[in-house]
Amino acid sequence: MRKKIVAGNWKMNKTVHEGIELAKIINRQAEENDVIVILCPPFPHLTEVAGTITKDSLFTGAQNCASEASGAYTGEVSAEMIHSAGAEYVIIGHSERRTYFNETDETLNKKVKLALANDLTPIFCCGEVLAERQAGKHMQIVKSQLEKGLFDLSPEDFGRIVIAYEPVWAIGTGVTATAEQAQEMHKMIREHIAEKYRNAVAGNTSILYGGSCKPSNAKELFSNPDVDGGLIGGASLSAADFIGIVNAF
Ligand code: PEP
Predict the structure, then answer these.
(1) Closest protein CA for atom 8 of ligand 1
(2) Catalytic site residue 184?
(3) Tell me, what's the pLDDT at 146?
(4) 177 CB within 6 A, ligand 1
(5) What is the value of pTM for the model shown?
(6) Per-residue pLDDT tens digits for 160-186
(7) Is 166 a catalytic residue?
């Protein structure tokens, strides 16, 4: 059975103190139901945010991990360190990492494998830029990102992946994909997974939508048959907005 998931990507926002305060409010207000809620603060916050959480439906995730296991890589944070800090998830391949830090499909594939080897669930991001959608290439781009980033995994390992479809033109822009656009892409992603693996694997894969998701549009997006939740950026910085999105299920 695939899971309903709402993950908050805090990006490079909030001091440790502010982050703990936000996590405390979300921990207090989140209802214990079948929606998995994941808080993805910056690295310095991880241990304390993980320690703040007391509800069984709440988890912590990192926003990135290194593509090497350990060693002389100044400034990097390994998957093993993230796991030891109390996190259970890690976002891999966010468009901001692909664009500003030149992360390639090959690098992301290495990160996915290190995350899995260290008992972290990767939240693997994919999505097209506006020019690619306007050129009618969005399906092809997302298929290629999935194939290069994930499709050499065993069915067992693939079964541990969460996918986040995030059209780059919708991230932080206030322009949300329509429910139809999201459903069309999520259905294609699920069918592509089924072609590579099995129907059962595809049916069990949670596919999240990300891109200007807010309390006002979450219900419509989440009511689509292939949309299993959201990866939330801006709206995850406000407890009221984030909880509003979680409660949209
Ligand atoms: C994101 O960065 O993953 C994201 C979805 O951002 P926003 O919700 O702000 O568009």
Answers:
(1) 233
(2) no
(3) 98
(4) no
(5) 0.98
(6) 999 999 999 999 999 999 999 999 999
(7) yes
